[in-house]
Each structure stands twice: as structure tokens, then as C-alpha cells.
Design goal:
binds iron/sulfur cluster, single chain, eight-stranded mixed beta sheet, binds magnesium ion, 2 domains, globular, four-stranded antiparallel beta sheet, 330 residues, alpha/beta, Rossmann fold, binds adenosine-5'-diphosphate
Length: 330
């Protein structure tokens, strides 16, 4: 059994222009102790799918249908109170911009000790000692100094480490990391990714890693879900996607082309996917990727492909999943 199983999830938003179908029949799984990478351009529904799991949707959003099972327990029907317990103990989340998630008027000690006091009933003194342990865990130098500091006194990388410490404080079984390194420069980003990998090895936490950058997924993930327009267009083990795949979604293929490689000369323009993500209220009929797909046929414009298992463990939502076949046709 998978630790987290999302099945056929539909999450919609009521807006004055109509219903936005932000997440549209999404399924994915997170295995115990493994990392699922969720990748896709901005607006593809990555964050909304994660917020659905935690029941942290904006007030105009709702889960229209679908199932979210954590360790066999259905989450979509839990009360607020029960969900609050899950968020404090089993599933933690870190967001992209630590400054908006950290409270500027509290010291590091005060913020990181809160979960210990609220969820584990430790005293202030006991909690403060645990905070120092946590700061050491996330490799913060001088934890005794940092614990007395305020968020604005820390660098971006240090703030992100504090966020990770807070998220791991209650030893969650799953850590949802939504673009945790996007706002950081590349060197710091690499350090944060390595830290998360190391912590996963030490603590066995499952990670759901959300990013728009397939290069980051390559460093982090065991399994990959590629999202486009609120759907999973490809789901596969990372080694399949980053190996020499026989099958692939044209969108994944496009994302792969746009990863800078160490041997890419800096004056070579990377092949980005032409066109833009369609407006969520004006999604095309047929395949949602058709307007941008260089392999699109007449069929693609009128008929919508299902996510089909092309080989064990790999699903592709495309009429022409075989790379060689479609190169011949295209
Ligand atoms: N509160 C909201 N009201 C209406 N639409 C929303 C709301 N929140 C998100 N959306 C829409 O849902 C879609 C998916 O958003 P999101 O999950 O944030 O994308 P991603 O994280 O992949 O960049 C987008 O089209 C976005 O505009
Ligand atoms: S179904 Fe057609 S348009 Fe959609 S991704 Fe496949 S080839 Fe491209
Ligand atoms: Mg997002």
C-alpha cells in the first residue's frame, strides 16, 4: 500500500467568470520513504492539488470529487479538527517564500518550538532544547545564536533551513515541499536540495516535491508526475524519464529539452516549449496540449486522450506515446 494515494481528484474554484477546474482527474501516489516529484509550468495545478490534500484551499475552492488516502485513511471527509491533527503530526508543508510563512515578530526559538508545545505538550524549556537539536539537524551553524534571532536577520538560505526544521519538528511521515528552493540562488538551492535528500535518508520521511524545474526533479525524485492544465500527463519512475525512454509525453519531452546541462555553452538558447498555458476558463477541446504540440494531429484536436499505462509503472496521456513512432510521423 502506498503511504499517500490521490485518486481521480477534482478540485474546482468558483469565480465570477465561471468554474475554474484547477485540478481535473488527478491521480498520483507517494511511496513510504520515497520522493514524488510533481513538475509542470506555472498554473498547471501543482499547488492546488497539494493544498487539497491538506484542506488548505482558498475559500472559493472545493474538492468536487475524488479520494485522498493517507496510510489507508480517507482525508477528504475529515473534520477540520481531525485535519489539523494530521497537519501537525503526519503531513507537513514548506512553501516557496519563507518570509511569508515565518512570523517576523517572533524569534526562531519561539516559532520552531510552537509545534513541540502545541502538538507534543512539551514545556517551554524542553521545547527550546528540541529547537537547538532541530537547528543542528538542518546544519545551521551557531544554533545558539540563530535561535535568538528574528527572520529578517537571516539569509534566504538560513530562513529556508528554519522552515525545514519547523516542518520536520513533529517527525511527519510526509513532507510536502512546494517550490522550496525557487527563490534562492543556485548555490544555496543546491545546498537545500542536498540537505533535504540527506534528511530523508536519515529520517525516512516521504517527500512530495513540487517544482516547475525538471532539472531539480532529476536530483530529488524517485517517481515523477508531470502536470499540465490540471491533469497528470505522465507518471513514471524518475529513472525512466531521465533514462532513454521508449515512451514519453510530448510535454515531458519539451521540458527535458529545456534543462540546461553542464556541457551546454551559455550562448546556446535552450529549446523552450513554444506557446503558453491556456487560460483555465478557455481550455481547448481534445488534448489540452494540442495547441502547443508539434506532433498534434486532427484527432488530437477533437478527442481527449486518457492516461494509459504504456508499460508497468509508466502512464502517458497521449495518443502517440512511442517516441520513435511519433518522430517517424512528425
Ligand atoms: N482561489 C482561486 N480562485 C480561482 N482560481 C484559482 C485559485 N487558486 C488557484 N487558481 C487557479 O488554479 C490553477 C492552478 O493553480 P496552481 O495549483 O497554483 O498552479 P501551480 O502551482 O502549478 O503553478 C491556475 O489556473 C490558478 O489560476
Ligand atoms: S495527444 Fe496529440 S496533441 Fe496531445 S500530446 Fe499527444 S500528440 Fe500531442
Ligand atoms: Mg504553485
Amino acid at each position: 500500500m502506498s503511504l499517500l494515494e490521490v485518486r481521480d481528484l477534482n478540485t474546482f474554484f468558483r469565480t465570477k467568470h465561471g468554474i475554474v477546474k484547477a485540478v481535473n482527474g488527478v491521480s498520483y501516489t507517494v511511496e513510504a520513504g520515497k520522493t514524488l516529484g510533481i513538475v509542470g509550468e506555472s498554473g498547471s495545478g501543482k499547488t492546488v492539488s497539494a493544498m487539497s490534500i491538506l484542506q488548505l484551499l482558498d475559500t472559493n475552492g472545493f474538492i468536487e470529487s475524488g479520494s485522498i488516502k493517507f496510510d489507508g485513511r480517507e482525508l477528504t471527509t475529515l473534520t477540520r479538527r481531525e485535519m489539523y491533527e494530521i497537519r501537525g503530526n503526519d503531513i507537513s508543508v514548506i512553501f516557496q517564500e519563507p518570509m511569508t510563512s515565518l512570523n517576523p515578530v517572533f524569534t526562531v526559538e519561539r516559532q520552531v518550538s510552537e509545534p513541540f508545545m502545541v502538538h507534543q505538550g512539551l514545556s517551554k524549556r524542553e521545547a527550546a532544547l528540541r529547537v537547538l537539536d532541530m537547528l543542528r539537524d538542518v546544519r545551521i551553524p551557531n544554533p545558539e545564536v540563530v535561535t535568538k534571532q528574528y527572520p529578517h536577520q537571516l539569509s534566504g538560505g538560513m530562513r529556508q533551513r528554519v522552515m525545514i526544521a519547523m516542518a520536520l519538528a513533529c517527525r511527519p511521515r510526509i513532507l510536502i515541499a512546494d517550490e522550496p528552493s525557487t527563490a534562492l540562488d543556485v548555490t544555496i538551492q543546491a545546498q537545500i536540495l542536498k540537505l533535504m535528500n540527506d534528511l530523508q535518508e536519515e529520517k525516512g520521511t516521504s517527500i512530495m516535491f513540487i517544482t516547475h524545474d525538471l532539472g531539480v526533479v532529476c536530483q530529488m525524485a524517485d517517481d515523477v508526475a508531470v502536470m499540465y492544465c490540471g491533469q497528470v500527463v505522465e507518471m513514471a519512475p524518475a529513472r525512466t524519464i531521465f533514462g532513454k525512454p521508449q515512451f514519453s509525453h510530448p510535454y515531458t519531452e519539451g521540458l527535458l529539452f529545456s534543462i540546461p546541462r553542464l556541457d551546454t555553452p551559455s550562448d546556446v538558447r535552450l529549446e523552450a516549449i513554444p506557446g503558453a498555458v491556456p487560460h483555465p476558463l478557455k481550455l481547448p477541446d481534445g488534448c489540452k496540449f494540442a495547441p502547443r504540440c508539434k506532433y498534434a494531429t486532427e484527432r488530437c484536436k477533437v478527442e481527449e486522450p486518457e492516461l494509459v499505462e504504456v508499460q508497468p509503472g509508466q502512464g502517458v496521456r497521449c495518443f502517440y506515446p512511442d517516441l520513435k513512432e511519433r518522430r517517424k510521423d512528425g
